[in-house]
Amino acid sequence: MKNLLKSAAFAATLLAASVSPVAVQAQTLPPAVIIVVNMDQVFNSSAAGKQAQAELKAKIDAMQARANTLRTQFGAEEEALAKSQPAPTNTAARPAWEAKVRDFQSRQQTAQTELSNREKEFQASRTYVLKQITDASNPIISTLMRERGASIAMPEGATLQHAASIDVTNDLVARLDKALPRVSTTAPAGAK
């Protein structure tokens, strides 16, 4: 055991002696150059982002209008059904009223499914818009990194503070406007 420890210590001494200060310097990495991008600003101020926001707003407004119409329609119908409920002793009128209630509930469920599907479509459209803008931004960010000699690009939200000189958001938006002036707000079939 003593021989093994002596051998290990001797090997460590030889290894330490063989590593020169020049080799240590060669292994030192250059300082990281960072650029920062505010992707929220890219989505909100780029031409494609503004166009998509307008189209998505129209979709959400239509969805809300439909929900309000259904709410009003079903509210009035529910009130009418409650008022027309026959007395428990009126067994002749009860089956017809119960059929109306089942029909009402069925239509109400269909309407809820419709609104749920519209919500899913809207979310898929929104996600698709974000994907198109992100996909088009990535090569531009890579170009900006090369131009600035950056080794890291990070979202502004991940920084506590940073100098304005490392923020490339405006450059990205200007180039993105040329590369991607419009996006589709209709997600491909099956996208969720």
TrEMBL record:
<dbReference type="GO" id="GO:0051082">
    <property type="term" value="F:unfolded protein binding"/>
</dbReference>
<dbReference type="GO" id="GO:0005829">
    <property type="term" value="C:cytosol"/>
</dbReference>
<feature type="signal peptide">
    <location>
        <begin position="1"/>
        <end position="26"/>
    </location>
</feature>
<dbReference type="InterPro" id="IPR005632">
    <property type="entry name" value="Chaperone_Skp"/>
</dbReference>
<comment type="similarity">
    <text>Belongs to the Skp family.</text>
</comment>
<dbReference type="GO" id="GO:0050821">
    <property type="term" value="P:protein stabilization"/>
</dbReference>
<protein>
    <submittedName>
        <fullName>OmpH family outer membrane protein</fullName>
    </submittedName>
</protein>
<keyword id="KW-0732">Signal</keyword>
<dbReference type="Pfam" id="PF03938">
    <property type="entry name" value="OmpH"/>
</dbReference>
<dbReference type="InterPro" id="IPR024930">
    <property type="entry name" value="Skp_dom_sf"/>
</dbReference>
